[in-house]
Amino acid sequence: MMKENVMDNAADQVTDKLTASETLSQVDTSRRRAMKQLTALFGGALSMSSISLAVQGYQAQKDIPGRTGKILNPQQLNLLRILVGLIIPATETPSASDVDVHGFIDNQLAFCFSKEEQLAFIRGLEKLQSTAVKQLGQAFAKCHQAQQVDLLNNLLSDLEDASGDFDSKDKDFFYRTKSLTLLGYYTSEIGATRELAYLPIPGGYRGNVPFDEVGKAWALN
Amino acid sequence: MTKITNKSIHIKTQPLEYDAIVVGSGITGGWAAKEFCEKGLKTLLVERGRPVEHKKDYIGEGVKTWEMPFRGQVEKALVEKQYPVQAQCYAFNDATKHFFGNDHDYPYSTEKDKPFSWIRGNQLGGKSLLWHRQSYRWSDFDFNANAKDGYGTDWPIRYKDIQDWYDYVEHHVGISGSVENIPQLPDSKFLPPFEFNTVEKRLKAKIEQNYSDRKLIMGRCAHLSKPAQHHLEQGRGPCMARNECQKGCSFGAYFSTQSSTLPAAQKTGNLTVATNSIVHSVIYDANSNRATGVRIIDSETMQTREYYGKVVFLCASTLGTTQIMLNSVSETFPNGIANSSGVLGHYLMDHCYNAGAYADIPGFEDEFYSGRRPTGVYMPRFQNLVDKNPDFLRGYAFSGQAYREAWWEFGGKKGFGVDYKKAIQQAGGWKFGLHASGEMLPRYENQVSLHATKKDKWGIPQLHFDCSYSDNEKKMMQSAADTAAEMFEAIGLKNVHKYTNDRPMGIAIHEMGTARMGKDPKTSILNGFNQAHDIPNLFVTDGACMASSAWQNPSLTYMALTVRACDFAVKEMKAGRI
C-alpha cells in the first residue's frame, strides 16, 4: 500500500515546511521518515484547514501611550500590563507584557466573560490601585517593583492582612488574573514554542521518557 | 399506494424505492449503510444535519492555539445563544463546536427539577466524530443483570449471540488494547495497547498487589495504534497521539463514519446519502403491516418529501430515534409506531459519572512522557460479581490517568514571578485520578414523551424529559468515591481528595433504552434481532434498543448489534419474510 520511494519525494515537499515550523527535532530519524510519508498521505488537509479559524485571532498590539482596551481604560490596561509582567517576567524568554498578554486578557474579558465578571475584574484592578495609593502614596504603576511585589504578596498572604485592606474578593481577582495570564502567555507562539516544549504532532505516545530528554514541560500536555 | 395517516405534514411524493433506508449516519447508521451496501442492497442513508467531508471539513484541526480567536474558548454570546447545553460537554471548544447540535434550533423541555443535558451531533457522521472512542465488550454479567435482580426486562440475547459480531466489527474498526482474560470484560481482537507511563506502571503494580479483585489495564479505544494492512487500505493511518480527536482526524486514526464505514459503503456504488433531511416520521402501511418509508423535511428549504424502502433501520441516536417513533402515529399505532406495548420512551438510562478521587504522587520528577495518549487507564468493575455489595446493585468501572501538572494547573497555585515561571517550565508534580462510570438501573418512570404543544422550527413536537438518577446510582457513586480514596490511601498517595457531584443525566452521553429489546412483545419494542415485534421490516439498532446500561461504554456493543441485525434483515428479505 505505501510505496515508500514514490511517496518520499512528494512527502518531502509537504513535510519540510511542517518540520521547519513545528519542532519535530525531538523525533528520531526513522520516526521522522514515517511521519513524512504519513503527512503526505493523510495530512495534506492540515495546512489548508488551519486558515479558516485564524482570521479573527487576537493580534498582539504595541503599547502606544494612552492605549485603551476594549473594556479597560488606559490606566487600567497599563496596570494590567505591569501585573502580568510581574506574574510572568522576562527570563531567557520575553515576559507576559512583552507578548501583550494584557491586551489579550482585555479582549478575552470583552468576548468570553459576563458583564458581572468584567466589572469584578475592573473592581479588582481599581482596588489594587487604591490600596497602592493608600499604603504607598502613589499609583501602582509608579511604585518600585519591590513595592509592587510586596503589595501582591500581602494580597496573597494566608495570614490576616495587618492593614485589613485586602479581602477574599481581591484574592479571587488575583488568582483569576494569574489564570488568564497563563492562558494568554502559554498559548502565545512565544510561550508555547520557546518557553515550553511544543510538539503539535507527536507521532505516537511514549510513556517512559526521562524528563531531561524533553527538558521542559509540554505546552500541550 | 401509501396511506398517509399523519395529517400534520404535507407530503410531496418521491418515486424512488430503495432496498434499505437507514436513518442517521453516526456510529450505527454508518455501520448499517456499509453492511447493506456490501450485501448488494441499494441503500439510502438519511441524515438530518449538513454534510461533513473527511479531512476537508475538519476546520478546527491543526489550528495553532495562538491562531484561535479566543485561544480555544468560545465567545460568551455565542454559547448563550446557541450552545448553552452543548457547552457543558468536556469536548466542546472553539475547534469542535461546529460538530455539536445547535441548542437554539433543537429545543427540548424537562420536568421541573429534573434537568437533562442532551448532547447532540447533527451532521453527517453524527457523534462518531465526537465520541470518546473507549471500546469495551459486554459480558454475560451484563446480559444476565436484569434477570438477576429484576430491574428491567431480561435481555433476549446472551454473550454467545453477539461474540462473533464483536470480532467482526473490531477487525474493521481497529481496537487498541491488551489481552487480560477478565471474565466481566471479555477481550477484543486487539491492536497493540498504548503504553503505561512510569507512574501508572508503579501504581498498577501496587494496586494489584494490594487488591486481588482489581486490575488496572490500559483503556481500550478505537484507535489505530498499529494499523493492519486492511486499515491502511481504508485510507487510515496510525494514531499521532495528538488527543485532539473531536476536531476531526485527517489521519483517520480513530474510527468514525467518515474515516471508516462511509468510504466502505460508497465504494460499493450502492449508497445514496440524503443530508439536511430531517425524518419527521416513519410511513406505515396497515394493510401490509410494513414500514414503507420515511417522511422528510428538508432542513434548509422546509420542503417535504417521502422516501420508500423495503426495510427501515432507525439509527438516529437513542433519543432521535425515539422522537421519530413517537411522532410516527397512525390508526394502528396512535402512541407511536411499533408501540403496542406502550413502553416506547420509557426505561431511559445514562451512565453515572459523578464520583471519583484524585491525589498527588510524590517523586518521579525525572520521569516524563511524550505525546498525548488518547486513552487512559481503566479498572474494570470488581463489585457485585460474586460477593454482593450491601449498598447498591450492579457496578461501576474507574478510568483515569497519571500525568504531570501542566501550565494551566498553576493558576490556582501560590506565587508569581521568576521562580513561578521556572517552576511551570520544569513541569508540576505527578497527579493521579480515578473517576467512576456507573451503571444505571432501567426504570419505567424515567421517560421521554412528545411535548403536547411545543414544537421545533420544523414543526416537529419537542421531546419532554422526565428522568433522574435513583438512590441506587447515588449510593453507588458515594461508594465509588470512598473506594477510590481508600485505595489511594492504602497505596500511599498523598493529598487524597474524593468527590461526588450531582451533574444531570445526559452529560455522560450514553443515553440508552426507550425502545428496548425483550422477549415479550407486551413489555418490549424489539426482539433479539433489533426487529420491531409489531412490524417485521422496522429495526432499531442504536442505543434506544438497550435493555440495560451495563457499566462499560456502549458504542462497541451498538456496532455489534447493528451488523448482526443487518445480517438477519438481509436473510429475512431473501427468505421473503420481509
From TrEMBL, chain A:
Residues annotated as transmembrane: 38-58
Keywords, alphabetical: Membrane, Transmembrane, Transmembrane helix
InterPro entries membership: Gluconate_2DH_su3
Keyword Membrane: yes
Pfam families: Gluconate_2-dh3
Highest taxon above the source species: Bacteria
The protein's name in its UniProt record: Gluconate 2-dehydrogenase subunit 3 family protein
Protein species of origin: Thalassomonas haliotis
UniProtKB/TrEMBL annotation, chain B:
Keyword terms: FAD, Flavoprotein, Oxidoreductase
Cofactor entry: FAD
Top-level lineage group: Bacteria
Keyword Flavoprotein among record annotations: yes
Record-linked Pfam families: GMC_oxred_C, GMC_oxred_N
InterPro entries for the chain: FAD/NAD-bd_sf, GMC_OxRdtase_N, GMC_OxRtase_C, P2Ox-like
Domain Glucose-methanol-choline oxidoreductase N-terminal residues, every copy: 19-351
Domain Glucose-methanol-choline oxidoreductase C-terminal positions: 442-561
Transmembrane segments: none
Family note: Belongs to the GMC oxidoreductase family.
Protein name: GMC family oxidoreductase
